[in-house]
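Task card 7
Instruction: Convert sequence to C-alpha cells.
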Amino acid sequence: MNPTTHETEGSAPAPVLTMALELSNRSWRLAFGDGAKRRQVSVPAADLAALAGAVAKAKERFKLPASARVVSCYEAGRDGFWLHRTW
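Output:
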C-alpha cells in the first residue's frame, strides 16, 4: 500500500471585505466592513480609480491582504448593474 500525500486544508475562512455603495450623480458613499469594524468614505461619482483606491485603503485599515475578496452591493436604481460589470 502506497502512502498518499494530502494537502493541508485549513478551516479558517478566507478574509473578505464587504462594501455597500450609495450612488448619486455627484458622489458615491461607500461603507466597508470586515465583520468586526466599519468605515465610511465618499468618492466622486463614477470615479473608478478613486473607488479602487478606497477599497485598497479599506483593506489596509482592516489589515486584510491585498488579495482579499471584496463582496459588494448597491441598489441598482437608474444606474442598473454597470458598476458590477465594470468592476
